[in-house]
Amino acid sequence: MAPKKKTPSSIKNPDLYEELRDDGASKSKAARISNAAARDGKKTVGKRGGSSPAYEDWTVADLRQRAKEIGLSGYSGKRKSELIDMLRNS
């Protein structure tokens, strides 16, 4: 039996907090999202996210810059479709 994780007492939606942490969110991000969801509802919080054009609309230079920003390697010789695949699966 796995030990139960300790959730901070200030968390208003501990199940969502743990789900976000399991998905790789930082403690502060998971806390912020779970508390906002408990306060305002999940649908409201989900609509707040920013927007960005689809990778298909980006230039190859922009895709390479994004790959560099997130620490990927081996992107310099890739075609646009390969860059998109790398970014989506990283």
From TrEMBL:
<feature type="region of interest" description="Disordered">
    <location>
        <begin position="1"/>
        <end position="55"/>
    </location>
</feature>
<protein>
    <submittedName>
        <fullName>Rho termination factor N-terminal domain-containing protein</fullName>
    </submittedName>
</protein>
<dbReference type="Pfam" id="PF07498">
    <property type="entry name" value="Rho_N"/>
</dbReference>
<dbReference type="Pfam" id="PF23855">
    <property type="entry name" value="DUF7218"/>
</dbReference>
<feature type="domain" description="Rho termination factor-like N-terminal">
    <location>
        <begin position="57"/>
        <end position="85"/>
    </location>
</feature>
<dbReference type="InterPro" id="IPR055642">
    <property type="entry name" value="DUF7218"/>
</dbReference>
<dbReference type="InterPro" id="IPR011112">
    <property type="entry name" value="Rho-like_N"/>
</dbReference>
<dbReference type="GO" id="GO:0006353">
    <property type="term" value="P:DNA-templated transcription termination"/>
</dbReference>
<dbReference type="InterPro" id="IPR036361">
    <property type="entry name" value="SAP_dom_sf"/>
</dbReference>
